[in-house]
Specification:
The complex is a heterodimer of chains A (238) and B (118). Chain A contains eight helices and seven strands. Chain A is an alpha/beta fold and 238 residues long. Chain A is globular, with a radius of gyration of 17 Å. With 118 residues, chain B is an all-alpha fold. Chain B has one domain. Chain B is elongated, with a radius of gyration of 23 Å. Classes of the chains: A alpha/beta (238), B mainly alpha (118).
Chain lengths: 238, 118
Amino acid sequence: MKPLVLVPAYNEAARIARVLAGIRAVVPDATMLVVDDGSGDDTTAVARAAGARVMRLPFNLGAGVAAQTGYKLAVREGYDCVVQLDADGQHEPADIPALLDVIARGDADVAIGSRFLGGGGYRPGLLRRTGMGLFRWLAWLLTGVWFSDVTSGFRAFNGDVVRFVATEWYPTDYADADVLITLCRAGFRLREVPVRMYPRTGGLSMHAGLRPVYYVFKMLLSVALAPLRREPAQRKGI
Amino acid sequence: MPELTLHQTMFALVTSVVAFLFVLELVRRRRLREEYSWLWLLTAGGMVLLAVWYRLLVVITHLVGAVTPLNTLLLCAILFLFAIAVHYSVIISRLTTQVKNLAQELALLSSRVEEREG
């Protein structure tokens, strides 16, 4: 198996070096790819210095688009597995092998790192817990599956899934929960794996301000339109 | 309902013909692409038609159950503005996807060049 470790990054110069060093220590043979989402700081230089291959988007397009740029590279260069984690240090690189194992054994097409499966002491605040509960319920409405952690961006895809998410079916607008739902509905097998997650050490969460409100609106719209939409192409032979 | 005076008809006709010619001129000078001009031409054409054929407006007014021809005109104007705004949203959505794909392609190609040049 030829895994690609994908780290989308936006203005993470202060935090990304530690993340990349962690990845290097855990999976020394894997290619580390950082997609710099049009950062205004030294993210690209810091990532290169840490030994990562860096792709730079010409302007900021959002985390979903940055990740998809990585999937497209993985498809073109023949990687048969992509494991993705955040650049801000929330995800623990030591958990990468646990996700890769699920893909390598063929137990599932998608492995999702869940912070709520007994992995560690992550305790979100009341507001976030309420929001996550709502997203879980919406995801259940759309897929019939109860995910323990629908907003996790720590995940691994096998080759079939990577080819699928490199197409226009991939919801780039709001990546995490929507990706799970889209993949589930496309017929891929998903499995959650316990991982550790840490609170952010600084910077801005993508779930700040009014964006959760828009997220809920978008998910509700998806719920309403799902039965009327043509289902995405099935997973085999994409 | 009273017919329009000649004065009113002339004003309506001149206004709508100028609007129609203005859109045509933009297309001729390639300032407006043909694919985006049809909704404007259709509207300007409708304005010309209603200016010379007032009875049509009266018939439509009865058809939709409006009280006066003015109501019908305002309704048409609002519907037109709605249509053109949605039309633009559709175009912007398409352009957004195209810009996204272009930016990704640029990043992928730059990365390949950098890999080659070492």
